[in-house]
Structures are given as C-alpha cells and as structure tokens.
Design goal:
UDP-galactose 4-epimerase, domain 1, two-stranded parallel ribbon, 7-stranded parallel β-sheet, 11 helices, 334 residues, Rossmann fold, binds ligand G4F, alpha/beta, 2 domains
C-alpha cells in the first residue's frame, strides 16, 4: 500500500451509492476496486461500461474467504461497505437472507480486514441507516434523530442493519479499527432503483406524460421521509474516512416530507396539479410494520465534517423527473 495514492474497495458497486462514490473517488485520483456478486451478474456489463476505471473482484459478503481474497487483492487504504439487501419491503419476505447479508456479512468483512490488515491501517465505512430508528411512537427527538437517539427498528432490514452498526462500533472499540458508521437518511436520485418509492413515482410520472402508462399503484402515502440527493451523501461518507478519529454521523437534510408531497411536486413537473386520479392504492405495497416519520439532525456532520447537502427537496424531485422524462423519451430502460 503506498501513501501517495489511495486505494478504495467498494462493496455494493453496482448500486446507486456505489456509482456515485466511484465517480467521486475517481475524481480524487483513487485506485478503485469494486466487489461484484454472483456467477453471471447482469449488472456486470453495465458497471464495466459506466466505470471502466473500477477493477471488479468477484466476492460475496456471505462468503468469508472470498472477502479475505478481495482485501488481499485490492490492498485498500479505505473500504466502503455499501452492499446489503436494501429494500425494506423485500426484507419482510426474505428475513433470513437479509440477516445474513446485511447483518452477518458485515462481521465477515470486518474479520477479513482483521486477518489481512495486520498493521491496522485500513479505514472502514459502514452504511448504517435511519431505518434503525423506529419512528415517532418510539422516540421524539426535538430537531430530528441524532447519533444518540434511541433505536427501535421496525423491519428485518432495520434489525439486520442495527447488528451491523453495533458490530462495527464493537470492532472499533475492541480492536482500535478506524471504523465509522454513516447513519444515512433516505437518499435518492436518477440512479435509484425503481423498486423504491421516489423513483417508482418519477418513472411513472415520466411515462404518464409520454402516454405510456395511465396510473401508478402505491402502498401507504402518509409516511414521511427525510429525502436527500445521493450524490451529496457519498461526499459525507468520504469525509468520515478522512477524519483522524472514526465516529458515527447522521447525514440528513433536516426536513421531512410525505409521499403525497413528493407526488404533488412530481406531477406538477409535468403540468398536472391533481395527482389523485392517477394514483391507486394497492395493499401489496404496504408493509407489515411501517416507520411513520423519519427526520434527521445532521448538526454533528455539519460541524465536524463540514458536510452539508446541496440539493433540496424540490430540486431532487425536479432532477429525477427530468432524467426519467429524458430516458423514457428515447426509450431507454432505466
Ligand atoms: O422508498 P422506500 O422503499 O424506502 P424506505 O423503506 O424508507 O428505505 C430506504 O431508505 C432507508 C433509509 O431510511 C434505507 F436504509 C433503505 O435501504 C432504503 O433506501 O419507501 C419509502 C416509503 C415507505 O414508507 C413505504 O412504505 O414509501 C412507502 N411506499 C408507499 N408505496 C412505498 C410504496 N415504497 C415502495 N418501495 N414502493 C411503493 O409502492
């Protein structure tokens, strides 16, 4: 490992955050490795085309020896663990897989680091999440959830992430690892998968504008989320690993909005003021337990990391609708 050029290993390279982070680290001159999973991953080709500067390594968070090999091959100065079963609804249907990949997978990666990195030089980022907070019934912070707020996860995903959060803190305290957790609130953008509500809406709105679709089916519309732009949040991840000391940081906008508000803005972007005729509720998209409201207080990240989000809520909706109208106009599949 050289001191002059940094090397990063990113798990979850094929996901939204992996893409934004790869771009950011490439701009900063990093050598970048990405872990890709599966025998014939359909995302491999797209990832290779979009990020030709990333070297892909086949490994899996649930296969400890593959992680040892990935750390040995890449010899990273920084590891960003962004891989997970990340869809909350899916985690209710696949709870054990979620526990193993999203929870125990992090333990496997931390152990791989300990085995390979005998000089304790690697800095580690764990993608923790606001889903670890349970919503207003469990905790009513004045300005929003902070790093000190009570956790009460409401999904198999949230429970698995909480294990991952605590095992990362435990390895920091037990082995003096430079391991940080970013407690990120919802972050979206044009790279978001269509299985998440914001992209599902903007994708449908674009298709409705172009006459390709006439309605959208959604679950509950009342939950509120603190929605930011993913491109802003990867900057915060990177800043955490540049600190002398590791720590845990909330990244959020400090604002919360309902899905109805998101619908309002998205439909207005295509000139429709009343979205109600276009939206049908379908219980299939409702969850056995819901988190009613998420609102983060990013004061610590602002003060210690100098981080702040740049894109606001209307700006986020606008950029997502614009992107989806563009790609749908030329018939590209997102
Ligand atoms: O977009 P969502 O699926 O995101 P959710 O559940 O808040 O989780 C996201 O943010 C977390 C951070 O807090 C991450 F950790 C996690 O990995 C993920 O990125 O759902 C947002 C809200 C929920 O209340 C959901 O019940 O939208 C509601 N919703 C209503 N109809 C829907 C739908 N969600 C989805 N995905 N699809 C619907 O049709």
């Amino acid at each position: 490992m050289t001191d002059t050029k940094k090397t990063a290993l990113i798990t979850g390279i094929t996901g939204q955050d992996g893409g934004h982070l790869a771009e950011l680290l490439h701009e900063k001159g990093y050598t970048i490795y990405g872990i890709i999973r599966g025998q014939h991953n359909p995302k491999r080709e797209i990832t290779e085309a979009e990020f030709p500067y990333v070297t892909l390594i086949e490994a899996d968070l649930m296969d400890p020896s593959s992680l040892v090999r990935a750390v040995q091959i890449s010899q990273p100065s920084e590891i960003y663990n962004l891989a997970a079963v990340s869809h909350v609804g899916y985690s209710f249907k696949n709870p054990q897989l979620t526990a193993e990949a999203t929870g125990v997978g992090v333990l496997n990666l931390l152990e791989a680091i300990r085995l390979v990195d005998t000089e304790n030089k690697i800095r580690f980022y764990q993608a923790s999440t606001s889903e670890m907070f349970g919503g207003l019934e469990y905790n009513r912070p004045e300005k929003g959830y902070t790093e000190e707020s009570l956790f009460h996860p409401r999904s198999p995903y949230g429970v698995a992430k909480l294990y991952a959060h605590w095992i990362t803190k435990n390895y920091r305290e037990s082995y003096n690892m430079h391991a940080s957790c970013g407690i990120l609130f919802n972050h979206e953008g044009d790279r978001r998968g269509v299985e998440f509500v914001t992209r599902k809406i903007t994708h449908a709105v674009a298709r409705i504008k172009l006459g390709k679709q006439n309605h959208i089916e959604l679950g509950d519309l009342w939950p509120k989320r603190d929605w930011g732009y993913a491109g802003d949040y990867v900057e915060g991840m990177w800043r955490m690993l540049q600190q002398d000391k590791p720590g845990d940081y909330v990244l959020a906008t400090g604002e919360t909005h309902s899905i109805e508000e998101f619908l309002d803005l998205a439909f207005k972007e295509i000139g429709i003021n009343d979205w109600k005729p276009y939206v049908k509720q379908n219980p299939a998209f409702m969850r056995p337990a819901e988190v009613d409201l998420l609102l983060g207080d990013p004061t610590k990240a602002e003060q210690e990391l100098g981080w702040t989000r740049k894109v606001d809520f209307p700006g986020l909706v606008k950029l997502m609708v614009k992107h989806d109208v563009e790609i749908e106009s030329v018939g590209l599949i997102s």
